[in-house]
Amino acid sequence: MIQTCRLALALALLLAAPVTTEAQSPKERARVLFREANKLYSRGMYLDALQKYRDARALYPSFKIDLNIGATLDALGRRTEAAAFIERFLVQSASAPAEIIDAARSRLEELRKKLARVRVTSLVEGATLWVDGKAVGTTPFELPVYLEPGRHAFKLERAGHEPVSRDLDLGAGEQATLDLTPRPRARTPSSQPAATRPVERPAPDPTLEARRRSRTLWAYGALGAGAALAVTAAVLYGVGASQGSEAHESYRAATDPDEIEQRYQDVEAAQTKLVVGHVLIGAAVAAVGTSVYLFLTRPGGGSEAPRVSFSVGPCGLEMLGRF
């Protein structure tokens, strides 16, 4: 207790500084709280002082406040927590006065003789360490974990990993190293194969289907008309060519004026049939082209979409269509 009081008296001056009446910045408000905590500590009101120190550290983290917290915890008999805060101060206290560093180091050595400390290592970062059912921090650990002598249960947990546990029997002044590395949790394959989801086809649009049917009917109608015109044109062309040849020969052989007139009319009739045949062939081609266009532009698609391909055959360029 004498050493603790000596350390506390040294700490009382560590952050003491003139404070303005209105603390504007977090650092100034922390100084106000620090000064109030020093007064409470000097009166032996350690719990109240500890809260003030913690509030000051929340506003302005400082290794100097860590030492004051450690001294207050030491005064309360909470040795493991006190050792942790004092060691944290010593790790970061390069700019602290030499006499305060010496006092803190001396007190830490005394605590180490009475406590056990464990350095926990792990290859997994962000894992939570539990000691005797109490969370003490997350990996990686820069400082050792201080514990009272005895048997302690260690457990390291991290999401997606198998937790790992160890028990240690520790004596006063003992230092141990404990490696706790949880393994990634293995993925368990499903006992049943996943059912194949059927391909969802969109419901047919009635309006679209009606337009498709209408255009299909018109396409077939145009195709039928084209076929009929082609047949008619072929008949007229054949008849006209045959009759025209005979009429032309008769016309050249005729000598009577009336017969010449009659044969001339026969030649004109045959030529008219040929002309009509040519016109009908053109109309047939136009009808077939219209039919192809209507088939190709029908609403819908997919496997029912028309296909048209061209190839060179014995009769020249041939078109193959699937409608």
Helix content: 40-55%
Q: What is the rounded distance between the termini?
A: 102 Å
Structural class: alpha+beta
Number of helices: 8
Provide the gyration radius in Å: 53 Å
Strands of the widest sheet, in order across it, are: 3-2-5-6
Largest sheet: 4 strands, antiparallel
**Mean residue pLDDT:** 80
Number of domains: 3
The outline comes out as: rod-shaped
Beta-strand portion reads 15-25%
Total number of strands: 9
Low-confidence parts? 15-23, 301-305
Secondary-structure element order, N to C: HHHHHHEEEEEEEHHEE
Characterization of the model:
- This protein has 323 residues and is an alpha+beta fold.
- The protein folds into three domains: 1-114, Serine Threonine Protein Phosphatase 5, Tetratricopeptide repeat; 115-183, Immunoglobulin-like; 207-322.
- The protein has eight helices and nine strands.
- The strands form three sheets. The protein has a four-stranded antiparallel beta sheet, with no helix packed on it. The chain has a three-stranded mixed beta sheet with strand order 4-1-7.
- A hairpin with a 2-residue loop joins strand 2 (128-131) and strand 3.
- Helix 1 (2-11) packs antiparallel against helix 6 and helix 7 (206-253) runs antiparallel to helix 8.
- The model is unreliable at 15-23 and 301-305 (pLDDT under 50).
